[in-house]
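User: Reviewer 2 asked us to show a designed sequence for the structure in our supplementary figure. I'm pasting the structure tokens here. Could you produce the per-position amino acids so we can include them in the response letter?
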């Protein structure tokens, strides 16, 4: 009986293995566990148990993702990534409020790393830099501020 359990771990054991590797949102964990459950109610029960014990935390997922991506991406991209992970609207809104305050500084840093702090002289170079920063999730208004006053802090 114990040997069978070792080859086929319970949903809770699977959840703990996944959470030990990195933080997961409730939606991510539900998706991964549902492949191993016969009944969706079992998955919900395990998720509720994990949340009750503090093993599953939306706040920690948001903090981890924002921390990991802030040095490379803008608020718009981070917002998209949070929503993809199934984070609640309230948590995304709260994270965005914090991100918007440092958006210009983050955009300047990303721009400096990529372009060495050199302002574009040709329109084609300027367009390339604008596209790059917008592709990283920075708003056009912020991008234009970076390119206008690149040396201002």
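Assistant: Here is a per-position design you can include in the supplement:
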């Amino acid at each position: 009986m114990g040997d069978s359990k070792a080859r086929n771990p319970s949903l809770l054991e699977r959840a703990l293995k996944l959470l030990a590797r990195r933080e997961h949102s409730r939606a991510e964990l539900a998706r991964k566990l549902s492949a191993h459950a016969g009944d969706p109610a079992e998955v919900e029960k395990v998720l509720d148990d994990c949340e009750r014990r503090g093993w599953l935390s939306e706040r920690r997922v948001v903090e981890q993702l924002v921390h990991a991506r802030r040095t490379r991406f803008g608020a718009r991209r981070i917002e998209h990534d949070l929503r993809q992970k199934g984070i609640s609207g309230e948590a995304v809104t709260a994270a965005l409020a914090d991100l918007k305050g440092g958006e210009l500084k983050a955009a300047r840093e990303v721009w400096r790393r990529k372009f060495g702090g050199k302002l574009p002289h040709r329109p084609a170079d300027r367009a390339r830099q604008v596209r790059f920063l917008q592709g990283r999730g920075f708003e056009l208004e912020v991008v234009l501020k970076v390119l206008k006053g690149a040396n201002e802090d």
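For the response letter, you might also mention the following. Residues 1-56 form a domain with the Arc Repressor Mutant, subunit A fold (CATH 1.10.10.10). The radius of gyration is 21 Å.
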